[in-house]
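sorry for the late reply, my laptop died twice this morning and i had to redo everyting from scratch. anyway the thing you sent over, i finally got around to it. pasting the sequence first so we're on the same page, its 124 residues, then the predicted structure underneath. double check i copied it right bc i was rushing
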Amino acid sequence: MGGKCPHRKVKKRRLSHKTARRGKFLLKADDAVYDELVKLADQGKDAEAKDLPVDEDLPGMGQFYCLHCDRYFASESVKDEHYRSKRHKKRVKVMSGPAPHTQLDAELAAGMGMPDNGLKLMSM
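ok and here's the structure:
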């Protein structure tokens, strides 16, 4: 009755979440992306029409970029495939809604921000 457990590989694969989370830390936060989208909307520009500088370190020389998801792609076809994905559609929906929470909101909720003591009354 010895031998290896047949489910060992499945468990090991399931617990390997480090690589999935690695890219998460390199992305901009929701509030930074939202501010960038608002700035482009105020200027009257579209998110797609943004001219990008050539950067050899980025995939696709930095020319294929999704502003909503803050991702670069290797080619136009990969970018178009991303636009049809569920993850992108959810992200666009989140970014088109109300403004996401900012660091200032978090500090005020924790009681670390500027105090709001109401109106200043005249003292005698």
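Residues 7 and 13 are 10 Å apart (CA to CA).
thats about all i looked at so far, will dig more tmrw
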